[in-house]
């Protein structure tokens, strides 16, 4: 059974998209190499504490990552084997073995080889202990990920569980958004990086890192190197016993998923949502708004996404007040809006095939899209305004008012427009809302959509930011507040135009979207343009029902076709560009501002560390590099599909071919 399930997982990976695995593999490999270098070259007194912190970070990624990415890897689910005559323990063993197949586990194993490097620096006995600790630590990490994900999914059936899971994910996101602020707070007192590298963590923190299960392997190696072999053996035994306990817990959870129904009732909402529904005006648009408010309150997946976005903004404010650096606090509302857009870009897929009700109601598409946009504004904009305006008032950050006034309306309109457009144009199909099974976290894989929308949101803020910057740094109050007016106009245009594109696309391609939500992208991915023309599809040369290529929907169609047919390597390149293009732009812009204003602090702006004669050229080069990366990303999305001699794209595999990434069956 174990071998069969491993081969099933390999077949899924072989026929599935490789772009995400390629990006994850490159990033993971870079992080693993950094971990190995730390174990090999950090000063020995500091190496153990640093390595314990790095292993804790790897474990945290395993434990919290799946809840932030649609439930993690769901290619093999326990429910698939409910009708097979296998004991639950064999199914559990097969699922555990298949969890090590892929990119993540081997990369993590490579990072844990750092224990062997650390042990070799202590001596032969410590190296031998490390050889045993590496697989034991890896097994504990994978099991902890599976158990915590399953427990988090079960907890989403309750209101308290949703809040706790949202707080966990929001804490990680808020720390990521505030890392520069935290670095500045600590660096006021010492050279943080130099002190950590040479001295490690202070003694209480090192003890805490060792006491965590993620630090037991490092602690065992350190104890063996210091001659305490009994402690090292005890820690290895603790790793083994903990893994056995987690296996028992996971077996019980798998048994529940195999034997329980695959349907689950929704959670009953109330509070402000119920009050808002009661005061809404009657009519078709009011009905859509009421439905969406109820869904955001009752669907566990939507409720989790909503709370992650809201809690992240609150925690950014809290971290700023905690460390005494408040310059990030007024920007917390912008963080909330950006996350709100990212978290809601897949709402149609979360609703599943309930879309048929909208498609069978004449003229309902426009009201459905506009209603979703209004609810998005009602949910996220008031909280964002309170966080940014309240943060500026409480902390006295008066410099933030023009920036917030310019960027907040632009980002609100872009979030409300692009989120619904992505939901219509590029959904990530997942299970039906009533068929979550034992995993309420499970939803479509939206990593690609995240990668694309994140830079779009950044670019949408550029025009009002540029105008505001000219007014602020040029001492021109009129121009400064013109940036706020531009942001308001831009936000309104984003909301109206993108909403119009979305509902026009839903009117033209609603049946195709319904098919995608029912069967996945593979239902139509194998069809060529010629086949779609033959069937009267939306790619007809005559414009498909009156919307010719010059209409606004043509651009969306082209981007959608490029995403559907993009090779794995190109998809990996697009993901890297989308995630990193803003870094050189930020480095160049901030360095130029520092050079123009005569600022002394270099912070982590790399061009300022160059010789004085090269700082200005370095900053300009960073700007040009970022612009080139952004242009390459736009070109990959907007380029015309390849055409054969007849002017039509070469047809891909037919609809009867084996679907890439299709889930294997367990029987005929």
From TrEMBL:
Keywords, in A-Z order: Membrane, Transmembrane, Transmembrane helix
Region (Disordered): 534-554, 644-668
Transmembrane regions listed in the UniProt entry: 21-41, 47-65, 95-118, 124-145, 166-186, 229-250, 308-328, 334-353, 374-394, 400-426, 447-473, 479-498, 571-596, 616-638
Metal-binding recorded as keyword: no
Record keyword Transmembrane present: yes
Protein name as catalogued: ABC-2 type transport system permease protein
């Amino acid at each position: 059974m174990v071998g069969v399930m491993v081969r099933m997982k390999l077949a899924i990976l072989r026929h599935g998209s490789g772009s995400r695995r390629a990006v994850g593999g490159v990033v993971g490999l870079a992080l693993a190499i950094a971990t190995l270098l730390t174990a090999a070259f950090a000063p020995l007194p500091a190496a153990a504490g640093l390595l314990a912190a790095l292993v804790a970070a790897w474990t945290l990624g395993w434990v919290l990552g799946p809840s932030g990415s649609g439930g993690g890897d769901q290619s093999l689910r326990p429910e698939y084997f409910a009708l097979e005559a296998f004991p639950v323990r064999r199914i559990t063993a097969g699922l555990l073995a298949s969890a090590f197949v892929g990119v993540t586990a081997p990369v993590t194993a490579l990072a844990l080889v750092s224990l062997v490097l650390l042990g070799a620096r202590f001596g032969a006995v410590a190296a031998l202990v490390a050889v045993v600790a590496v697989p034991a630590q890896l097994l504990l990490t994978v099991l902890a990920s599976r158990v915590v994900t399953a427990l988090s999914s079960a907890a989403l059936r309750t209101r308290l569980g949703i809040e706790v899971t949202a707080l966990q994910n929001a804490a990680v996101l808020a720390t990521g958004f505030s890392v520069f602020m935290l670095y500045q707070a600590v660096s006021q007192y010492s050279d943080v990086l130099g002190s950590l590298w040479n001295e490690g963590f202070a003694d209480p923190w090192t003890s805490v890192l060792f006491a965590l299960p993620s630090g037991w392997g490092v602690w065992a190696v350190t104890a063996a190197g210091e001659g305490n072999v009994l402690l090292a053996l005890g820690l290895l035994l603790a790793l083994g016993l903990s893994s056995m306990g987690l296996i028992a817990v996971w077996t019980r959870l798998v048994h529940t998923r195999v034997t329980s129904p695959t349907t689950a009732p929704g959670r009953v909402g109330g509070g402000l949502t119920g009050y808002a529904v009661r005061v809404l005006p009657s009519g078709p648009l009011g009905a859509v708004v009421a439905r969406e408010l109820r869904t955001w309150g009752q669907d566990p997946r939507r409720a989790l996404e909503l709370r992650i976005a809201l809690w992240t903004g609150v925690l950014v404010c809290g971290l700023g007040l905690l460390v005494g650096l408040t310059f990030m606090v007024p920007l917390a509302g912008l963080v909330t809006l950006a996350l709100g857009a990212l978290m809601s870009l897949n709402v149609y897929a979360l609703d599943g095939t309930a879309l048929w009700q909208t498609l069978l109601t004449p003229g309902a598409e426009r009201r459905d899209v506009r209603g979703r946009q209004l609810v998005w504004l009602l949910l996220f904009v008031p909280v964002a305004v309170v966080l940014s305006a309240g943060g500026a008032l409480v902390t006295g950050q008066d410099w933030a008012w023009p920036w917030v006034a310019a960027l907040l309306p632009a980002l609100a309109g872009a979030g409300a427009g692009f989120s619904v457009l992505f939901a219509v144009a590029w959904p990530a199909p997942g299970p039906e809302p009533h068929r979550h099974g034992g995993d309420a976290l499970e939803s479509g894989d939206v990593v690609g959509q995240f990668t694309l929308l994140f830079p779009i949101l950044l670019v949408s803020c550029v025009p009002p930011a540029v105008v505001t910057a000219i007014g602020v740094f040029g001492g021109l109050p009129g121009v400064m507040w013109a940036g706020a007016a531009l942001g308001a106009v831009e936000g309104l245009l984003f909301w109206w135009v993108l909403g119009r594109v979305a509902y026009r696309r839903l009117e033209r391609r609603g049946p195709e979207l319904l098919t995608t939500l029912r069967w996945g992208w593979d239902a139509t991915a194998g069809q060529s343009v010629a086949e779609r023309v033959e069937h009267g599809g939306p790619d007809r040369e005559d414009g498909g029902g009156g919307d010719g290529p010059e209409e606004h929907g043509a651009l969306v169609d082209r981007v959608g076709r490029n995403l559907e047919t993009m090779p794995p390597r190109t998809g990996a390149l697009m993901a890297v560009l989308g995630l990193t293009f803003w870094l050189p732009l930020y480095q160049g812009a901030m360095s130029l501002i520092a050079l123009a204003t005569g600022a002394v602090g270099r912070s982590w702006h790399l061009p300022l560390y160059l010789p004085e004669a090269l700082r200005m050229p370095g900053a300009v080069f960073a700007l040009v590099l970022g612009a080139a990366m952004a242009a390459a990303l736009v070109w990959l999305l907007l380029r015309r599909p390849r055409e054969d001699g007849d002017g039509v794209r070469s047809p891909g595999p037919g609809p009867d071919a084996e679907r890439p990434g299709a889930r294997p069956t367990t029987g005929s």
